[in-house]
Amino acid sequence: MAQALSAADLQRRHELEGAPDPFPSLVDDSPAKPRAPRSNGVLDTDSQEAFPSLAPAAQPGNKPAASAWGANAGPRIKPQAAKQPLVSDSFILSSIDLSTAGKDGKPISLGEVMRQVMAQYKVKLDASTNQKSHQTTFYLKSESKKELEKAKKSLLALLSPTVTLTLNAPASTIPTIIGPKGVTLKQVRDQTNVKIDIPRRDTLAPANGHANGGAHSASGTATPQPTSPIDGDEEEEPTVPITITGPQPLAYEAQALLNEIIATKRSRTTQRVRDIPEHVLPFLLPRRAAFEAAAEGGEITLSLNAAAREITVSGDREAVTRVVDSIKSAVEYFKTETIPLKLTLPKRQHRLLTGKNAEEIMAKARCAVIVPKAEDASEEITIWGKATDVGLGVQAVMEKANSAYIHEFPLPGPIALSRQLLTYMVRVNYPKTLATTNPGVQVYTPPAATWERASVLNVDIIGEKPKVDAAVSQFSALIGKLFGATKEVPIDWLVHRIINSNKNAKKIKGFHEAHNVLVFFPPESAEQSSVLLVYDPTSPNASPSPVEKAKNLEDVEKELLKMARDAADVKTQIVNVEKKWHDAVVGRGGTTLNAIIGEDKTLSIKVGAEAGQSTEDAILVRGISADVDRAVGEILKIVEDAKNDEIVSSYAVEFEIDREFVGRIVGAGGASVKRLRDTLGVKIDFSDEGEGADKEREKEVVSGGKKKKGGAAAHQKSRVKIVGRKENVEEAKRRIQAHAERLADETSEVLKIPHQYHSSLIGQNGKYVTRLEEKYGVKITFPREAHADGEGKTREQLKADEVLVKGGRKGVAQAKQELMDAVEFEKESNNVVKFTVPSRSVARILGKGGATINEIKDNTGAQIDVDKASDDSASANITVRGTKKAITEAKAAILAISEQVQEETTATVEVPSKFHRTIIGAGGQGLKDLIARCGGPTDSKAQAGLIRFPRQGEPSDEVRLRGEPKLVAKLKAELEKTVKTLKDRVVLGVEVPVAQHRALIGRGGQHLNDLQNRTGAQIQFPGSRSYTQVGEPENAADLAGVDPANIVKVSGPRAACEKAIEELKSQIKPPAPEGVTGTITVPLKYHYAVSQQGNLFRQLRSFGVHVDQSAQPSKPAVPPQPASQAGNGTARIDDADDAGASAGVSWQVVPNYQDAEEGESVWTLKARDEAGLERALKLVKEGLEHAEKMSHVGFLTLPDRSMFPRIVGAKGSNVARLRNESGADITVNRDDNTIVIVGSETAIETAKEAILKMTTNSGGRGRGRRED
User: Fold this and answer.
1) Would you call the peptide bond into 224 cis, given omega within 30 degrees of 0 as the criterion?
2) 25: which residues sit within 8 A by CB, 6+ positions away?
3) Where is the composition biased (Basic residues) (predicted)?
4) What pLDDT, on a 0 to 100 scale, did the predictor assign at position 368?
5) pLDDT score of 267
6) Rounded CA separation 686/554 (Å)
7) Where are the alpha helices (DSSP H) in 103-160?
8) Whose CB has fewer CB within 10 Å in the chain, the N or C terminal residue?
9) What's the rounded Cα separation, in Å, for the pair 316 and 270?
């Protein structure tokens, strides 16, 4: 439990200062919250602790607690006892609230409160008030520290307002706050004497209530809100509002205690770096190891969301913070250090600059390539990199863009035909088929979003030229077969679903069998009112005759249009049937209604109140006209039968089906037939034919006195009897016969597939085999492992290497082909190699959080399983699956790591902690350089484990080394040498005028780095991050009179420092000689116009003139914008002629210098020579003349900022042009929708009209103009 804050600390924390004298003359007239008097429970008169007895009388009941005033309950005064030392304390209150301290709502004075506390707790209490500061100081004395603390809390409670705080605690921390059996929460309550409420989870509202620390005062006094502890970048977690009610300081004390509990629990966090610029992201990906190293050994996980351009970091809170800071620093670095270069390349070459090719460009040239989206017509790409790398980036981009042969195949037109051909190819996945047939070739089709607006549709075929030529030849052959083989049929998209329903599935499938025509319905979301017909060019029965193609397409078109007319002939009919007959229409459990609607459910029937009519006697039937007429007839017949009390439920029908289909129709455990019975409310019985019928059939198959084997078995029948209502019986019969017909077309085939490939073909959770079953409408059964008791076997007796495919003939053939293709692929890519490695190398092979093994998997494409060995095992088994190449690469990488571990040794070096940061260097660069000097690896991941410094906060100077023995020895020697050098390090100061610091540092620190490398010393200029960390210079006394801004610190070996100081002094330029001066008086009201927002001073400095001003204006550059007034005709643009173009546009004009600041400023111009001075004076005078003309200010307010980029133009080109043309100064605000125009009245009107013209032209682009 965290230590409680003292009352005085709480008062200072919450700034309860500045109240008037709170002594008895101060009375609060507002109604006070009643406080219970001593007689009703605040003081317990039976308590031996509060009122110790004066004589050792017998104690009733249990033995009371020992008194706080002595060791026992004897007399209070013991002459011979040693006197207890007094404990004292004091605190200051700046504001006192007595509204909650009264009795029964009556006001109470401060003196009465103090007497009440002294009576309740054995303390002495005094108070004094400083009338000037209005602060009251309380002095407490007691023989018991415990009593003193109780008295202090009681006094604070009586003199402080009651407040209610709401703390939003993460849901995961609630169990910790409550503690085992509520112990922790009880301790907080007992320590602070406040009420803490934690709601149950099931009572929480979706919102989290008040923000953390939000408070409202019960006494009407506002209370300060502490800062929320939740970081806005952290991943959001559900929170629970905890309510704390009590005296203000004690409530805040309880809140602090709870926040400490929350902080100890939330040691892990998740943060995101969002909105990473698109061109910066490629630079960050190769730096993953550097970001992980920033964790300094902390456990973190990095994940990338490329689409959202964000990186998520999860793990230890401190490590996550360091990694996020490292990522943000890298983002800022690349934002400022990289420049863009734009190139124009044909759109087809853009495909060669993405994915792995883009990564190779980054690795080779350290440049990122940003290409426009495929649907964007732009051919401009952007290369981002440092100025020194962009040239190499252009070279790398051009190499990749020309690294493969690209054939751009334009689809034949007109464009409508091109779209038909492309639709067919995409729907049958022909690009994949073509690429599979021609290995090494990639085929790309245009994005669907560009089909409608494109005038030409091209298919790109990429690869080596001989392979591309072969693919082009095959592609051309397909195009030739598709000439005259496509046709679009106009059919309203609203009826596509009806035509393409299960009811018509067999008919549409029959179009291919009868006419060799494929039917492609567009996606429903496209709302496209056309259906594509294609005479299948891949079918072996396809005719090359154009006449034959056209005839078959026309036949299918007629059938489809007829189906569309039938589907579109939708009507609604209301049948009035007395409500008492509705149950007969609906049937038990809706069975009769289900039979009327049918299996395809193309009808909608609403009965009674559901029909939404004025009477409940109505039955509403809606659907295709023919179906509606049929359903209405059946409803009327059912009602008529019910009226006549005909027993129609005894209607029976019998028919035969092949016996071999009975089991499939009945279903597992009778599930299918039970579902049919429940749906239609009929009784269904299956029975075999009698013996007589069998014998008769056997006679018929006898030929020449010999029985034909298998004849009877092939024609065995089962009889089906259905009993129930006639309509339901007929529907059940139709469904059973339809099912039998489907089964009659069913076939099965057993495929020989080695057992080792079964798991890959099945997929995770049956993913792949389920897709095949749904795609081809078949059932695929793999053998299961048989247990000793026989359970787990499949119904079919399959061997370990057999797979059963069952379904329609065509579906079985297609599923078989795809399965066998997959097996061939698996044979090539699913090789398995097993080997062992020493157990102690497993941890290194896996890496932190599996990072190393995952990297090997990603780089090689192999699947790797590591069997972690037991503690007593010397080796561990590793299984690698994949292609032979992938297995070889993965095994080599694993064994290389294992060999490194076997050859490693460890060592330690004592390095004082004050030198750790210096040796590590910025971003770990110092360590990298040290390892490189010793001949170590250059890869950052390989470097990561070589040198380990103690974690931040650990009081240790021990640095651990681990690696190859020779390298460890070199690193140890180098570290010891570096430590020795650092111990001999000195810090010296040198005076360098601050104006020359920038030149000595150089662009990007180039001059400074060169100087440090030459001399071996470190140089810190004022303002640098490490300036204060290096300590005070030894020669500080010699620099006592020097401006601190001019002192540069040089640290390192003394000889190196002296050499660096000598070079620095040699590079200091002598002060410029005294030049000529001149003065000119500038009215303060013209200051901003003359200075041109500082541009004038920069221009003067460019030719050696500096300006000193005797006074600066205090008022803003332009007068404030007047408030908008409705109906002000001069202040708004709402004329009838411009109503369409300027709706919501405001134009307000005010005099520029009407309320301008009076007074003048004398400008002193210091120049190197007389010519420069004359030139400067001329510029200032021209500025004064220009300022006098700036007589008016116009405020042009647009409805929104959408047009601002167009107004400003590329790099401000449009604004600059408008300034030159109008002579007015134009400022486009960043924070609102107002453009400020300053100039003469004519100039600002000209500028306004030009701006409005730009907005009008843009808004009207592509639209016709209406003439009234």
Assistant:
1) no
2) none
3) 705-717
4) 92
5) 67
6) 46
7) 110-120, 145-159
8) C
9) 9
Question: φ and ψ at 989, to 5 degrees?
Answer: -110, 150
d(C-alpha 1204, C-alpha 1202), whole Å: 6
Domain boundary among 483, 503, 522: 483
Alpha-carbon radius of gyration of the chain: 45
Q: What is the DSSP letter of 784?
A: -
Contact predicate 245/163, CB 8 Å: yes
My answer on whether 780 and 807 are in the same domain is: yes
10 Å CB burial of residue 117 (0-12, 13-18, 19+) is buried
pLDDT at 107 over 70: no
Say if residue 959 is in the same domain as residue 1020.
no
Q: Length of the chain in residues, anyone?
A: 1268
Distance CA 214, CA 232 (A): 17
Q: Considering its fold, how many domains does the chain have in total?
A: 11
1100 lies in a domain?
A: yes
Is 556 a residue whose pLDDT tops 70? yes
Spell out where 438-498 has E strands. Answer: 442-444, 458-463, 486-489
pLDDT higher than threshold 50 for residue 981? yes
Is 1146 within a domain?
A: no
In a shared domain, residues 278 and 256: no
- Round to whole Å and give the CA distance between 891 and 1150: 81
pLDDT digits (tens, 9 = 90+) for 474-526: 888 888 888 888 888 888 766 777 777 777 778 888 888 888 889 888 887 77
Residue 63 belongs to a domain: no
DSSP letter (8 states) at residue 404: S
Q: Contact 91/7 with Cβ under 8 angstroms?
A: yes
CB of 1149 within 8 A of CB of 1192? yes
For residue 341, what are the domain limits?
268-400
Burial of 1061 (0-12, 13-18, 19+ CB in 10 A): buried
Contact 533, 487 (CB under 8 A): yes
Query: Distance (Å, rounded) from C-alpha 486 to C-alpha 519?
Result: 10
Query: Do both 672 and 771 map to the same domain?
Result: no
Band (pLDDT 50/70/90 cuts) for residue 271 is: confident
Cβ(1196)–Cβ(1234) below 8 Å: yes
Residues 374, 351, single domain; the answer is yes
Largest Cα span, the chain? 141
**Kind and range of the H or E run holding 1144:** none
- 810-847 per-position pLDDT tens digit: 888 888 888 888 888 777 777 888 888 888 788 888 88
Tell me the mean pLDDT in the region 900-925.
Answer: 79
Residues 668 and 735 in one domain: yes
pLDDT at 803: 92
Same domain? For 1008 and 924 the reply is no
What would the DSSP string read from start to end of 682-723?
Answer: -EEEEEEPPHHHHHHHHHHTEETTEEPTTHHHHT-EEEEEEE
Residue 662 token pair: 């009975």
Q: SS3 string of 487-509? A: EEECCCHHHHHHHCCHHHHHHHH
Taking the alpha carbons at both ends of the chain, their separation in whole angstroms is 81
Concatenated DSSP letters of 159-220: HS-EEEEEEEEEGGGHHHHH-GGGHHHHHHHHHHT-EEE---GGG--SS--SPTTEEEETTS
Look up residue 696 and give its two tokens. Answer: 């008769």
Last residue of a domain, one of 483, 506, 523: 483
Between 424 and 228, residue with greater pLDDT: 424
The predicted model scores a pTM of: 0.32
1102 and 1211 together in one domain? no
* Cα separations in angstroms, 654 against 138, 598, 664, 696, 733: 105, 21, 19, 20, 9
Q: What is the pLDDT of residues 335-379, one digit of tens each?
A: 888 989 888 888 878 888 888 888 888 888 889 999 888 777 788
Q: Which tokens sit at 219? A: 């006494």
The residue written with tokens 């005028």 in the block is: 993
CA nearest neighbour of 1190 among 1217, 1143, 1223, 1157: 1223
CATH of the domain at 1220: 3.30.1370.10
Could you give the percent of the chain with pLDDT greater than 70?
Answer: 82
> What is the spatial distance between Cα 1198 and Cα 1260, in angstroms, rounded to a whole number?
16
